[in-house]
Amino acid sequence: MLEADGVTLTYGATTALRDVSLTLAPGSRTALMGQSGSGKSSLLHCLAGVLVPDHGRILLDGQDVTGLSDRERSRLRLERLGVVFQFGDLVPELTLAENVMLPLQLLGAGRAAARGRALELLGELGVADVADSRTGAVSGGQAQRAAVARALVHEPRVVLADEPTGSLDTVNAEAVLDAMVALSGRIGATLLVVTHDNLVASHFDDLVLMRDGAIDSSRTATVR
Amino acid sequence: MSTSTTLLALLEPGPAYGYTLKQNYDRWFARRRPLAFGQVYSTLARLTRDGLADQVEVESGHGPDRRLYRITAQGVGVVDEWVFAPEPPEASAAGTLHARVTVALLSGRDPADVLARQREAHLTRMRALQAQRRGSTGPELLAVTYELAHLDADLRWIEESGARLGAVREQLVAAREGDDDARG
Ligand SMILES: Nc1ncnc2c1ncn2[C@@H]1O[C@H](COP(=O)(O)OP(=O)(O)OP(=O)(O)O)[C@@H](O)[C@H]1O
Ligand SMILES: [Mg+2]
């Protein structure tokens, strides 16, 4: 379970998040929508423990992570979260496969086992053919799919993805989202996906809308 | 017109019996409302009369089921013309969505509320369609993704309209004032 509790975040004079509270139930799949600048990435970064809010708490399985050191938060992220960033953060000097192997290796897996699992996942996402290409030498959509693979490869409890199919056409996006839903279902992971695309949102059960740094609760639809 | 042309097009891969045609039609085009056999045979009779199809063979005394139909060169021409003729663009603007959003803008109601409610309804349907898509191939896949794409387009348009709110509302208000001036 991942929870934001009264989170406020400012960048200098800009208030990006105003008293945001959100609970992601275990195994839930949620789309996070809202206009450009409404605070979606900021919220995702707080939930991921990449940014520390000015006020409020981020609770991961009940533990407040806002008081932890950078190091401790990085460790928790590695162990329990998978994150796809909006503008990608694959290591450009490494191949796609090596990028996907990283979380497994950091968690202690051997090289061969990590590579096997990485190739399997890259295959499922339709980019096996460029697995051994350097990140800088593949298309935006191919890199994006590798980022999705890296977020899922270590079977985290929670997957946070910021526009994970933003560079893909509808049919390829569909394949990636199907794989994300299937994989997260298999490992029982919680999914939060930021998108501006209703078709993408329709892959997930719940919808959360943001407006001007706050959750627009009057327009946030929850099914089930 | 479109049912008969569609039936005609199903003869293009090769001659077929009425029964097979009906099955193919139902499979690809009428999953919710199957064609009646009577309509299949009356359509085939009309197509034959008009020279768009003809009969390859008639086995004696076994009823309409034994008649094998074939498309003619003229028939292929008709299918060709129909497939490539663009639909009048107004066709996609049917329904009340356009009118409702315009009225919302015109009356000062928040189109974001129209969007929110429509999105809820559309997304519920789209989620069901996504689930259906994952298990489907062929005719069903085409039908499901066609509907998904159109629901998506509706939502995108409402969103855009909301974003254009300022400009659109000014135009609407100006138009209304123009009318008032004209009336004196
Ligand atoms: N690093 C930063 N420094 C200063 N302001 C920032 C920074 N990052 C974001 N902001 C501001 O915070 C607000 C929220 O930004 P955020 O990136 O969370 O929006 P978003 O909803 O993800 O938008 P988009 O859909 O365009 O990605 C915006 O006003 C933005 O300009
Ligand atoms: Mg963003």
Automatic annotation (TrEMBL), chain A:
This is ATP-binding cassette domain-containing protein. It comes from Jiangella ureilytica. PROSITE patterns: ABC_TRANSPORTER_1, ABC_TRANSPORTER_2. Gene3D superfamilies: P-loop containing nucleotide triphosphate hydrolases (3.40.50.300). One of its GO terms (molecular function) is ATP hydrolysis activity. GO terms for cellular component: plasma membrane. The keyword ATP-binding applies. The keyword Nucleotide-binding applies. InterPro entries: AAA+_ATPase, ABC_transporter-like_ATP-bd, ABC_transporter-like_CS, ABC_transpr_LolD-like, P-loop_NTPase. Keywords: ATP-binding, Nucleotide-binding. Residues 2-223 form the ABC transporter domain.
Automatic annotation (TrEMBL), chain B:
It comes from Jiangella ureilytica. The lineage of its organism: Bacteria, Bacillati, Actinomycetota, Actinomycetes, Jiangellales. This is PadR family transcriptional regulator. It holds the Pfam family PadR. Coiled coil: none annotated. Residues 7-75 form the Transcription regulator PadR N-terminal domain. It comes from the Bacteria. InterPro entries: Tscrpt_reg_PadR_N (IPR005149), WH-like_DNA-bd_sf (IPR036388), WH_DNA-bd_sf (IPR036390).
